[in-house]
Specification:
six-stranded mixed β-sheet; 34% strand; 20 strands; 446 residues
């Protein structure tokens, strides 16, 4: 049975859910609400190392784009470039969902829905956790967490979900379990009122006119479905989203903590965590598994040494008891020497396994904070050299068109790297024809 801890940033409060997961069944173990002012102290006391986080990005951008269909190895770069232009965010981390194909000017094009966030906003949230020795396993925009609950066997139908987050309402359109449209509006009423119905009707009308999709029903999520005071007739049937059978908790807990519950079911394709932090998480998991293997082998080697030492002790006792039998002393002593030589081999193994290795966590944190400007890091390699230092290489590409701009951007990154403690630049390579670069470094924390 797996354990998961999910957090949802909602207004000035943070809702925390501890859950157990087995197969497709989710059981709520504990739920609590923490104020943002107490978050640091909560993270310092909490034993959990990784968190699933849901957050509403006020500066998030979303919309529908049409991009040409090209070979798969070029498609992502074109989508990224178009999202950057449409959103106006220079350094963006984004999610995109294919909506369908169209024929534009006799050429096949792909229509996508995108959601983009500035990487600085992601870094600001991530640093809260990393500064307290924690990590974010996945980071979801709140609307994508909520949409994860709207699963239906009738995948050809469209649904509109509505939930409240602080003083805001969020209305979103889904089809085939994917988000197609998002609309936010302010509402200071706790219960569902005529103002909400008017906004729901406007949103449904917009979806019909511009998205060519009419929602079959509107699903009210969370506490918004508990009470209402309406006289306006909705243009689309309303229904309260109820707790599913695979979620085991009270109805009150489900309505109050529906966003952290939903985030546990959210697909990885909705994870907007930037590539740099995903790389750091991968390295952290690799090092954790490597540490477990190291400890296992160390214990195994220790057991071997223990049994060999115990066997040697028995041989010594036998040697003393046979002191009067001089004829056999030489043979027993020869056997003892052989055993001692064998023990020496195990001792070298134990000393090797117990030797200290340099700490790479400081380096990973420093690399995650580097401002890459017009450069894109494609890969970060780290290899242990001689037990006291690491060979580190960063490979990447550039978005600029001139050699001088590429050289300037690369020099800025190198200058920032040069400020990192224990890190020295050994080599830099520029391939202007491919707008590629490589920075080689040596990291010696000892």
């Amino acid at each position: 049975m797996k354990k998961a801890v999910a957090m949802s940033f909602e207004g000035t409060s943070i809702k925390v859910l501890h859950a157990s997961i087995k197969d497709n069944e989710l059981t709520v173990d504990r739920s609590e609400t923490v104020s943002q002012d107490d978050l640091d102290s909560y993270l310092q006391e909490e034993k959990t190392k990784e968190f699933i986080v849901t957050c509403k990005f006020k500066a998030g951008r979303h919309g529908v784009l049409t991009v040409p269909i090209v070979k798969s190895k070029y498609q992502l770069k074109i989508i990224e470039s178009e999202i950057r232009k449409a959103s106006g965010i220079k350094e963006a981390s984004f999610i995109y969902i294919p909506v369908g194909e169209q024929i534009v000017e006799n050429k096949k094009s792909l229509e996508i829905f995108y959601y983009a966030v500035d990487k600085e906003d992601i870094r600001a949230i991530s640093e809260i956790f990393y500064s307290n020795g924690k990590a974010i396993k996945a980071l979801y925009p709140s609307v994508f967490s909520a949409a994860a609950l709207l699963t239906s066997e009738e995948t050809d139908k469209s649904y509109m979900g509505v939930f409240k987050e602080g003083n805001e309402r969020v209305a979103f359109l889904t089809k085939n379990m994917s988000v197609y449209f998002i609309r936010d509006y302010d509402s200071f009423d706790e219960e569902l009122g005529d103002f909400d119905i008017q906004n729901i009707n406007m949103t449904a009308s917009y979806c019909v006119q511009h998205m060519r999709t009419s929602p079959s029903s509107v699903l009210l999520m969370g506490n918004i479905c508990e009470s209402s005071d309406i006289s306006t007739i909705p243009s689309v049937p309303l229904a309260s989203f109820t707790k599913t059978d695979n979620v085991h908790c009270s109805r009150e807990t489900f309505n109050e903590f529906y966003l952290p519950i939903a985030s546990i079911h959210a697909p990885q394709s909705s994870n907007i965590l930037s590539r740099e932090f995903k790389t750091v998480n991968t390295l952290r998991r690799f090092m954790a598994y490597a540490s477990m293997i190291f400890v296992t082998f160390a214990v195994f080697a220790f057991c071997l040494v223990f049994f060999e030492l115990r066997d040697t002790s028995a041989k010594k006792e036998l040697l003393r008891s046979m002191g009067e039998d001089k004829a056999h002393i030489e043979a027993v002593f020869s056997e003892y020497r052989e055993r001692e030589t064998e023990i020496g081999q195990y001792k070298r193994t134990v000393e090797f396994l117990n030797r200290t290795s340099p700490d790479i966590q400081h380096l990973l944190t420093a690399l995650g904070n580097i401002s890459s400007r017009d450069l894109k890091f494609e890969s970060i390699q780290a290899r242990l050299n001689d037990g006291t230092s690491f060979y580190v290489a960063i490979n990447g590409t550039s978005f600029v068109d001139t050699y001088a701009s590429l050289q300037s951007s690369l020099q800025d990154v190198i200058d920032e790297l040069g400020k990192t403690e224990y890190l020295s630049i050994t080599k830099k390579t520029i391939d202007f024809a491919n707008k590629a670069f490589k920075i080689e470094m040596n990291y010696s924390p000892e």
